[in-house]
Design goal:
Blueprint (H helix, E strand, L loop, with lengths): L1 E5 L10 E6 L5 E7 L6 H5 L7 H4 L8 H16 L5 H34 L9 H7 L1 H22 L8 E2 L2 E2 L5 H25 L16 E7 L2 E2 L5 E5 L5 E5 L8 E6 L2 E8 L5 E2 L2 H7 L6 H14 L8 H22 L19 E8 L2 E9 L5 E7 L1 H4 L1 H15 L7 H13 L4 H4 L9 E6 L3 E4 L1
Parallel strand pairs: 1-17, 2-16, 6-12
Antiparallel strand pairs: 1-16, 2-3, 4-5, 6-7, 6-8, 8-9, 10-11, 13-14, 14-15
Helix pairs in contact: 3-4, 4-5, 4-6, 4-10, 5-6, 6-7, 7-10, 9-10, 12-13
């Protein structure tokens, strides 16, 4: 059996593998995106008091902890039957905007940009964030400044830049001070300026994206607040492959529409619609679903994006540009929130009395896509059952099929060159998968790409 191992694949969050199977002629017979670590957070939470979930679940991931924090908080609101006051809701949304700004800036500038600004054919030692800093130091410095704002926003509202703890049943534990608001507003305005400048780089990709890379045809799912881009409020909308509306949901009824399942080659769960249609989530899905971003500069960028790709697109690498448009929109929304002195109001939490409902489902948009936290509790509020559906699981099918599509295009004579391997990585990287959210493992296990054939040989790049 021939094996070609490429280790590690760079610029993703977490550890995974790609296995490519060849026939006797050295042609690709099949290929799979493979994750062999096991996630255990659903079991960790059983027996815990449900009000502890917003403090426990951010430990799932250091890249997108605010998303888990807020989804858990929304679920506990339902269990205690409380609605946060307006200021509390606004602070939660602002916290999630900080998460988006930090995560999207990290991915676009530091994980995806080297492929486009340096070139996917460039040597691996140059095709990375250090190579980008050397070639374009101004871009690297501005990317760091924007990420700093996202983290500072998370710290000011969530209590800590990583693993926040201020969201709790009924709202937030503390208000935002006026001095912090002033500081954050200046940073938000600077970040918006950087986002607007960076669009000149991002828009340059509109004509360069190969629409065949990682080809897959799916339905889409994402949150929409009355047709406007939203990360926290609104119903989850579903559209078909042609953009036709399939329905929507906002809570426990998600089980009527989403079917989770597994495949033998991966411990990472899969998800599809109960109709049998496969779907995708995240920036590409959200921009396919919404009518507008709801902010001036992001709406202008969205118009250019749709001019290049159409009203609905299946183009996998368009995820990178869609992500940038969301990044810009979140900067604009952060400026809007922080410009309003009402964000420092003292009324941030509705008092909680006792468990009113035995089940709560919190749904928000995380940077990578729709996130579901589903808790069932006993009469004392102790968690009896927990189910988490993260974006990477919902995009698992598309990544798996996209990997096979790209492998068929780039594997020649049973060999994978460095350039070919990176193009396979680019398909995975477009989804910005967070394997940390999807699975958990002990130790350091980088992603591997293996090609197997009937005769035993091993090559390592």
């Amino acid at each position: 059996m021939k094996e070609i191992t490429i280790s590690p694949v760079t610029r993703i969050e977490g550890h995974a593998g790609v296995k490519i199977y060849l026939n006797d002629a050295g042609e690709v017979e099949s290929a799979h995106f493979q994750v062999v670590e096991l996630r255990g957070f659903e079991k960790f939470l059983i027996g815990a008091a449900v009000e502890e979930a917003p403090r426990i679940t951010p430990r799932i991931c250091g890249i997108c902890p605010s998303a888990h924090h807020l989804a858990a908080a929304k679920a506990t609101d339902q269990i205690f039957s409380v609605e946060p006051p307006a200021t509390g809701r606004n602070l939660r949304e602002l916290l999630n905007l900080g998460q988006f700004i930090h995560s999207h800036a990290l991915h676009f500038f530091m994980l995806a940009a080297p492929d486009f600004l340096i070139g996917h054919e460039a040597p691996a030692e140059e095709r990375n964030v250090l190579g980008l800093a050397k070639r374009s130091p101004d871009i690297a410095k501005k990317a760091i400044a924007v990420r700093k704002f996202g983290q500072r926003l998370s710290e000011a509202i969530g209590g800590k830049p990583i693993h926040p703890g201020n969201a709790l049943p009924g709202g937030m534990s503390m208000p935002l001070s006026e001095s912090r608001r002033t500081e954050l507003l200046a940073m938000a305005e600077e970040s918006l300026g950087i986002a607007r400048e960076g669009w000149e780089i991002a828009r340059g990709l509109l004509d360069d994206v190969d629409q065949r890379y990682g080809s897959v045809d799916t339905a889409f799912m994402g949150m929409s607040d009355g047709g406007v881009f939203s990360t926290y409020n609104g119903a989850v909308e579903m559209i078909g492959r042609d953009g036709s509306r399939l329905g929507s949901f906002a809570g426990p009824e998600y089980t009527d529409y989403i079917d989770e399942y597994s495949e033998p080659w991966s411990y990472l769960k899969f998800a599809r619609f109960t109709s049998g249609d496969y779907y995708r989530v995240g920036p590409l899905a959200r921009l396919n679903i919404i009518e507008k971003m709801g902010s001036e500069h992001a709406d202008a960028a969205l118009a250019e994006y749709r001019g290049a790709f159409g009203r609905h697109t299946q183009t996998t690498l368009a995820y990178n540009i869609a992500r940038y448009i969301e990044f810009m929109a979140c900067c604009e929304k952060a400026v809007s929130f922080l410009s309003d002195g009402g964000i420092t109001g003292e009324d941030v939490r509705t008092p909680v009395q006792a468990v009113k409902n035995r089940r709560g489902v919190g749904i928000i948009e995380a940077p990578r896509g729709t996130l579901v936290h589903d808790y069932s509790v006993d009469e004392n509020g102790m968690i009896e059952h927990c189910n988490l559906i993260v974006a990477t699981c919902q995009n698992n099918y598309a990544m798996d099929r996209g990997v096979e599509d790209m492998a068929r295009r780039v594997v020649e004579n049973g060999a994978v060159t460095e350039s070919a391997a990176n193009r396979i990585e680019m398909v995975i990287r477009a989804y910005d998968p967070c394997i940390s959210c999807a699975t958990h493992a002990i130790g350091r296990m980088p992603i591997r790409i293996e090609v197997e054939q009937s005769q035993t040989r091993r090559y390592q790049c």
